[in-house]
Each structure stands twice: as structure tokens, then as C-alpha cells.
Specification:
heterodimer; A: mainly alpha; 9 helices; about 0% strand; globular; B: alpha+beta; seven-stranded mixed β-sheet; about 35% strand
Amino acid sequence: MSPDQPQELAEFVELLTRHQLRLFQFIVSLVADRTEAEEIRQNTNVVLWQKAAEFKRDTNFVAWACRVAHFEILKERQRRGRRQVQLSDETLEQLATQSIENSDLLESRRQALSWCMERLAAADSTLITARYQQGEPTETIAARIQRTVDSVRHSLSRIRRQLKRCVDGRLARTEHS
Amino acid sequence: MMDQQREKELFDLLDAWCEGQLTPDSAARLDTILQKDAEARWQYLCYMELHGALQLDPATLARSATSGTALAAGDLRELVTLRGQSHFAGAKLGQSSFHLSRLALAASVVLAIGILAYTFWSRPTEQPVAKQTPAAKIVGLTDAKWAGVSSQTGDTLTSGQRLLLQSGSAEITFNDQARVILQGPAEFVVVDATGCRLATGRLTAHVPDFAKGFKVHTPDGTVTDLGTDFGVYVWSETGGGRVEEAGEEEQQPGGGPQFDGKQLPITEVHVFKGKVDVAPRDQLAQAPAPANPSDPSTIPHPPSTILQAGEAVTISDNKVQPLPAADPFKFALDKLQGKPRQVLLAEDFESYDVGVKRDAMGAWLIQGSSRKGQAVGIGDYDKAQADSTAQHGLADPSLNPPPPSISRLLVFAPSEPNPRSEFPRVARPIEAPQLAHTCRVLMEFVIFPAGNIEPSFAFAAEAGIAPGIEFWRNADPAAPSISWKPNLVYRVRVLMDVAEGKLRGARVERSQWSGSAGWVRDADFRTPVPTVDWTTPPKFVIFGYPTVTPQTPATPYNIDNIRIEVMAEK
């Protein structure tokens, strides 16, 4: 497609915008650090735009975009140098492929998570908001609510696992409904 | 499927990773696990995406995958000129004189995409984080019990403040004059001066015309007021909201959030006066992005349903379905809004220990006869017990699924030969000088007449002698008798308004659980008109009234899910 054609331009931009969230989710699941994932997402967007002409209309945009993102992740790794705590390139490759193959399912899981989050107990919801949305460090939270750091970590882990079970159950339910 | 041990190891490693606590050795171990095992990789992806998604604001997290931005060519032009670049000077998209260096276009469009994605992504949510602006005030409390932080009358509530009301009610006014009465158990958040969020529980809202636009957000959607009185009730299939103590730490391995992945939340909206606008959740998430992100007036209004006075709907799973009518019973406590109220009697028997009672239980007098095995079992009967007692009936499969509160059944079982004047009953006097003024009485219960028992409930100076619903001291022998079929589940609701010692209005309803059609009101159900003199302190009496034969065995009967509330003006 040629980005000089306004109709195709609009379509491409629409695809790009619509799948930003999936792109971010793909990257953050492989990179873990939010800031780094954000940076990689922006880099990916620039490349996607530059390669817009290569994208064939009516093909799988998400797969294409995620493959570009995967490449950007590798580039970022090279730039930063090998870190001690990191997955191997081979494992990363396997994960990326699996993630792309299951994009729709992972997307459904993200939406189910929204449903599950609504149903968190108040104390758990407050903890998640503080840790994740407000980015408060675990140590600060622990000091503020007068619990040990370990016990706060334990709670976060408990909440994550229960959210995951809820999402699992929610997906199983909608599958059979 | 991974075996439990490997799964535990994997999740322990992932949790360490999430907290930045992974050591190089553990990272290597994680890598090894993942390389060999596709299932482990899948679990990794699910968990780490979840970890990544937790930092998204609620509106973004809820965003549907199929919503697009539906950009028109005109919008695009606006986007690409965001940088104020003069590359497009005099040019319109679509014209052949359109020339642009690809790099410049790329840069400005990427910027535009960045901005659009930002707007698309983090649209202002209903819950602003950490704003301390005052938005509402508690103007009255009635028998309020709080979970965690207690609030007092006169407290100012700020944007984002969450209230956990275990029981009783709280009257809250919002700065723009909307008035909300919250009935516990409820979880409620003050969003700002123009809206609130009800996660679970019941509220009624009275919004004057000039405060039109007040919003109540629920897990299923948003109700926007258009100048009206309305009620919102959020509950779930396993029996309505429950509020956990803030700060409570779950000790059991299986404990935690109040869900099991199988609960279906339901929001009901009832309109009593005026109009409201009801929009289910995903319709909100699917709204296209505004044409001009910096101008809020271009934010499109999603399609929704307008409800008029007298109408009611349920919203669940993004479906809006009509209810037969707005139901004031569900929000009965609201009657005395605006006036200081005193609770004379509020009981649901749930807080008592399960068991067979004799003699006394709180202020209730249990009049059973132990010599013939007559007794009254009171408490919060769990579903398992209800299921086993329900084997007396509900054999009719067409009654599946059982009514939502089947775990709270009222079951009467026949007892030994029992003269009519001696049957187990539970009674309580009401302190009553206030009854000469104004009060509202609500009773609601689900019953399951098993065999030959006819349940009876009364406000009376003493128990009457005729079965059925009794509100008067002397039963009217000419009154039509009321029949209760065995093995059916009934729900009875009584609402009475009393003023100056006289009954001003009464409504009694009986419904049958019909399975697929839910509660079906019994249009032929009539009861004699109550004539109790409220200036003389009555008792509230519950009794089961057996038609006995020498063969009927002795068994205790259980009282559950009776909701009784009497409120009077102070």
C-alpha cells in the first residue's frame, strides 16, 4: 500500500491505533519493565510507519506488527548489552512466536482481567492501585501500611494468582456459554 | 497440564521476576523451564501479560478489541497538521498537488499517532487518582456499621474516596445537590461532585433538575440522571454484596477476592420519577475517539437506553433487559429520606449462630415447645444445608435454576401433633411511642412450604389464630383463606406506611419462583386489610402453622432470609 493514498493512509493509521494495546501487551510480557516496554513500543511505531508500504491490506496486522516489535526488543537488548537477569534469545523467540499465534486469546484474557479487577476485595484493589498504577515501591507501601515488605510481596503474589485463576475461569465460562 | 510442583516453581520464579527479586541463577532456571515446555511458556505469557496489564488504568483495561478509531480523512488532516508543519500549506488530502517528504509525514503522523494513542489509551477515567477535592458530604446515618474506616455524619468526602458500608444506611449529598441514600452492605466510591460508583449494594438517588447529568457507575454500566428519582442495585448470583474488612489478610490458601470466576454481576436500575439514561459498559468502551482530542465537546455520546418513571431494567454481561416495573420494595428504606430516622427493627437473622433456638435470641422471644421436638432453627443457612432440606421439594426440574437466594431458605417442616394454640414462634415487641407518628415497615422473605405447614407472619399484639399473612389482632373469619402449595418456592413482600397511628397504605405481594421465568407475581393473591392499631405497641411475630396429624414427624423448622425493617421518624 502506498501511504500517499489518503484512504489507505487512514486505514493503516486506524489499524496501528487500534492495536496499540495489543502491541504494548506483547512487548511488556517479554520485557517486564514498563518504561523499557514503552520505549520499545514507540520505536516499533516509527518502524511500522516507515514500513507501511510493505504491509499488505487484509493480512494479519497484529502478527506483522508484533514481529517488528520482537525485532525492536532484540535491538534494544543489543544496545543495552546482555544483563544478568534475562531470558535467552532462544526462549524469547519461542515466547514471541507463541504470543503472536495466540494474540486473540491473550486479548480476550486482557478483557476478562478487567472484569476480574472489578471484583477484587477493597483492600486488594487499593494495594494493586498503589503498586501498579501509582508505581509506589513495595518498601514504601509496606512502611506506609505498617506491614513487612515480605508480607506485601506475598499479598501481591496472592492477588496476581487469584486474578489469573479468575481470568482462566472467566474464559472457560464464556467458551461454553 | 503442568504438574503442581513445577507450576508452583514457575509461579514462584515469575513472582520474583515481577518484584525485581530474581537472581541470575533463578533466571537461568526460569529460562531452562521455559525452553523445554510449551505449556510453561503459555503460563508465562498469561501471567506476565496480566502483570503488564495491571498498570493500565481501568478504562483502558476495559477497552474492547474491536473498537476502532474510525478516522475520517478530515480527521487525519487535522492530525497531520498537529505539528504545525507547513508541508501541507494550501494542500488538501486527496488532491493531486499533495506532496510531502515521506520522512516528514512519518514524523508528524507518528507524533499524531502518539497523541491519538495517548488519548485513546488513557481517556480520563471515572476514578481520578489521588485528587483531594471535596465532592460530597455525609448528611445522615442510620444504624450504620462500617467495614474498616468509620465515617460520621458531617464528614466531607473527597474525589476517589471509597466507603464500605456493612449495614444500615448513609445519606450523602454531592456538591451539586444530588442526594444519594446508600444501603448496606455496599461498596461505594465518590468519583467527583457529579458522579459516584456503586460496586455492590443498593442506593437511591434524588437529583434535582439543575443537577441533571449526575452519574452512577456500576460494574455493568453507567446510569446518567436526567432530572429524577431512581434506584440502583448491584448484586451477584451468589447472594448479593458482601463487604470485607479493609486490611484483613486472608489466612487460608484458597481465600482472597470475592469471586470464583463464576459470579455474574447484575445491575438493576429502577426509575421512580423523571428519566434516566442507561449505558452498558462495553458501549462506553467502544465509543470512537473524539475528532479533536483537546475539545471535550466532541466526545461522542454512546448509544444508550432511556428509562421513564415506572420502568426498570437489569444490565448484565452488557445486555439490557426490561423488568416488569420499577419496584419500590427493593429500596424501601428510602421512604423517610430527608428526615431523621430511627430504626425500630431491622433483622435478617443472618448474624445469629446457626442452630436450634429456645427461649431467647437477642430481643427475640423464642416460644417453642421442647417436649414435642418443636424448635426454631435460626441463622444463615448455607447452600449445602438448604439443598439438603430442599430435597423435601423442588423435585420439579422446571424450577431450576433455583432463585438467586436459594441458599437462604425458609423451611417449615411438620412437627408432632400440635394443638393450634401451641406452635413454635419467634416474637419481638417493638418499642413504640414512635409508631404513633410515621413509619415504614418492610418485610420480605422467601419461603418453601414443605408438606402441611402454612407460614404466617404478623404484626400483632399477639399471634393470630388463622394461617396466612396476618396484620391484625383479631383475624377476620370472613377473610379468604390463602393456599400455599407444597414444594413451591414463594417470595412474599409486605410494605406498609403508617402515619399517626394509622395505616395509610399497604402493599402485599406474593411471587412464585418459576425457574426460567424467574419470580412471577401471583396476581390473585389477596390478603385482608390490616387494621392493627399502631398506637398500641405491637409485636412482630413469625410462626409456622402446621396442619398436623398424628403421623407428622417432629423436626425443627428454619427461618432464613427474612428481611424486616421498621423505620420511624425521630
